[in-house]
Amino acid sequence: MRGTPLPSWRWLSAGGILIVLFLLPQLSRLPAAQAEFHNGWDRIAPRLVLGRVPTQFVFSPPPDKQRAGAGGEYRLLIQRGGETVKELPLEASDEGYTTPEFQIGGWGHCEAVIVDAAGSPLAAIGFTLWPGLITLLPPFIAIAMALITRQVLVSLLLGIWVGAVFINGPDIFAGSLRAIDTTIVGAIANSDHVKVLLFTLFLGGMVGVMSRSGGTLGIVQRLARRATTPRRGALAAWFLGLLIFFDDYANTIIIGPTLRPITDRLKLSREKLAYLVDATAAPVASIALISTWIGTEVGLIGDALHDVGSEMDAYKVFLETLPYRFYPILALVLGFLVAATGRDWGPMLKAEIRARTGQVLRPGAQPLADFESDALRPKKEVAPRPINALLPILAVVAATLIGLWYTGSPAAGSPSLADFFHHPQPHRLVGDIFGAADSYSALLWASALGGILALVLAWGQRILDLGEGISAWVGGLRGMLLAAIILVLAWSLGDICREIGTSPYLVGLLSEHLNPHFLPLLIFIVASLVSFATGTSWGTMAILIPVTIPLAIETCRYHGFDPGPAHRILLGSLSSILAGAVFGDHCSPISDTTVLSSLATSCDHVDHVRTQLPYALLAGFTGIVLGDLPSAFGMSPWWSLLLGALALTGFVFILGRRVPADSP
């Protein structure tokens, strides 16, 4: 409501952000780090040095020194206040001379002094060591501003700008330029990101043609005979979420636009639909035996096991972790309970009460996608035909599976159908193929095929001429534009976080003084924070798995654990990474899957985050208390899952309130 005063915590948050923005110009006036004498040496990396964040110096030597220092002739002394705090060797590389990865504490002005074998200084290059806490500033500002202002674009741009300013000096002018021409352009230039963007836009075009040709309305009318209540509509969304298990992106983009007209007619809030789509997409894909996630997970586990000299089979370890994935499994259970009982609480309850009056969106909401324009409404003179939507959707699903098989089978020796039937572990073979597949290309091909098929069906039945079909396709694509921009900005903020070391800082901050029994809990918290701050579950897995496996093995060995308990701690720790990555992804407003869920359901993004957060927190807390902790002390994970499901059932019936079908 306009003119309503903000709560005090919002004023405090806004005030803190304004103070930060006021300090940035003052920081930019600090004396720039200059070389006292360089003799042709230049420091080319890193651009920002942070306390207790792993970093690595790279120097460009003068022509007469190139490649001459291999073998330990040159060393680097890190000095502060005239005292040497770190001594590192310099090794020749293609870029010049590099140091091993290192970290130092504190903050203030320091010098990097290059010396030769005799200890004579060759160059002294000054730099500023900033507090490691700065690494949390860009994601904190972006997330806080998004929750306060509900303006996602502005919030993401502000977080990117703050990070770019610190990376470049801090220099406000240079940071502002680099935020655009380096960070954002770099996020777009990533080939995988381009494929996701095109996949999203192509799916939007397909939905536009399906809608204009009456295909979507035909599905709505058919399903309307069974989905006659908001509860049945919610159950349909949950069950469909389980069926499309092979990829979270495909799950979200297919189910959201298909069910949205049905749930709108049933007066189910867009926030509820977005939650059900988001609560099934990543959780089911992350635990499926065949999915686009499995290759990344098994590959990372295998590399980490190899690095520590373990002979354990990576795929077997992956399978053994499945019962310990408490958050994804309990998130699926909670989604079913909410859908089946029709009970809600917190912001979701308010959204559902509002939706029963016909307002499926909050007044003033800004949905990420718009499929309601006149250009996309079915032509009045055309009878709705479900086949015009079902065939394109089935084509996308089938083409995705075929594309995954086509791109992944060479890695498994291109097996034939007979090889599959005679294989002793056919599920392992399929898992290897899907794990090695290029999921981004498969999704891109599938979305293009789906759009073409939708156009051909509409044109072949003379529902739309070619010009009308292209206009509908462009209209659907246009409806995805805002979400595409937000995806690019979310990726850009993730790149900023990687460059300034947000994840290593959190890991180092929270992983000191470890007790093996509490290791799964601690790793779940770290993974959740990393995923929440960076908005990427796959990036979180890539960062933490190589660190966690040796950490768990060595910590258990140090405390004298027997092989059985040590293996249980290892499985719990690995599962905590994968579960925490999904949990943080669900809670984060800058997560790509969270953005896609808002996009696919045409929901206001911040409304989706605010309504989903209490449910995600409940499933996460239940997983910690009844899963991570007791299983680390020896309880069977199956008992933990059973107790967790019972606890969630009790919570839903105690906390939840059933909304009448026609709420006033």
Automatic annotation (TrEMBL):
Name recorded for this polypeptide: Na+/H+ antiporter NhaC family protein
Is Zinc-finger one of the keywords? no
Name the residues that span the membrane.
6-24, 127-148, 154-175, 196-215, 235-254, 326-346, 387-406, 442-460, 472-494, 514-533, 615-632, 638-656
Its membrane topology is listed as: Multi-pass membrane protein
Q: Which UniProt keywords apply?
A: Cell membrane, Membrane, Transmembrane, Transmembrane helix
Subcellular location as annotated: Cell membrane
Where it mainly occurs, coarsely classed, is: membrane
